[in-house]
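Hey Z.,

So I finally got round to the zinc ion thing we talked about over coffee. Here's the setup:
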Amino acid sequence: MTAESAMAAQKQTHTLHPSILREYDIRGTVGDTLNDNDCYFIGRAFGTMVKRRGGAKVVVGFDGRESSPVFAANVIRGLNDCGLDVESIGLGPTPMTYYAMKTRGMDAAVMVTGSHSPLSYNGIKMAYQSGPFYGAMVQEIGKLAASGDFESGKGEVITVDVQDAYVDRMLQDYQGTRDLSVAWDCGNGATGEIIRRLVKKLPGKHVLIFDDIDGTFPNHHPDPTVAKNLVDLQKAVRDNGCDIGIGFDGDGDRIGAVDADGKILWADLIMAVYAAEVLKEHPGAHIIADVKCSRVLFDEIERLGGKPVMWNTGHSLIKARALELKSPLAGELAGHICFADKYYGFDDAPYCAVRLLDILSRSGKKLGDLAAHLPQMENTPEVRFHVPADRKFSIAPEILARLRAENADGVSINDIDGVRVTTKDGWWLMRASNTEDVLTIRAEGFDTDGLERLKAQLISQLAQSGIGSPF
Ligand SMILES: [Zn+2]
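And the result:
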């Protein structure tokens, strides 16, 4: 590139739609708030940030949405124009892109994915080798694009197939002794091909449903943390007499599971099963879980000799905290679970599945029995409801102020993310979403009467802030 053309390239500026720059990633509606040209400038801005940190190489992958390959090509062009070399690994789950970053000497990763968002959406997740990319870093993409303050150069792109290496790496941590029968629901998301390759090498019997990658998600929405999306998996488990069923979200960074009876094991209870395993080799370790998780998980970590850490919701925040505390296991109710005991510390749902099968196989027990000793709590699911944007973040402080003024006996208040109140009946949570204009609430009691009292307290607090009952 001549000095003149380099200068011309530096003068290019581009305004990204502000709504697409979110807390943990970029997401917008295809062709509307997020188009091919936007993707070029996102690549250019991210590439600039990577280069200014001394980076030279970036891996790029994409999911099964129709717009994803072209979006990825535009991101790659933007990275190359910063002078960064790119390894393009093609279609696969988000964790495969992170895997390639960690194992192939990459400085950063870009994944074009709309995760489980509706069909009209797509998005971009970014990561640095050294940790998650979120918050102010995402905002910086918009600022750099608008100012045109880009690095320039001429990078190269090569195509690399990491699928078999990725599958083999996951299988390294499978030491099962008993063959299992497993149902897998890929939800037509980006995990399909990887799971097909994985089960060829895993012992046991495997039933795959919706493993054809189809970004129109013709069967059900690819979000295994919502009960209605697990109905097909429950049926596959029952029809085939499976020991376990495993589901993934659209880009494979979130896991869901059902036991042999088709009963859902939510991610906080899956984490309780993992915690028992991880704490054997890492006694006394910090284990991180978000504020939405059951107290059963925190109590269990403590019972097993670990140090439970209740942290903010948000996979990037959980990952950042896990790095700080060198935590071998961290996760959230939404199904992002990160192993750093033998693995790389990112949220990899196929890998989590392998670890769950490993534990289940060696235990000689049923999945339901692995969690059977845990107290049976009465709880609500995560209830989400819309609130005006300008009220979203003001309600928690109002509730906190009232509760602190009351200073009621036997009540403890955690304000790490919203309000989580623990009473003799159990606990309730109210927090504002970082990504949408919604409040999330959840309550969990030792019995149904206790749960009703907790819900009544929560409803009363919301009412005092002018919000109607969401139950
Ligand atoms: Zn996802």
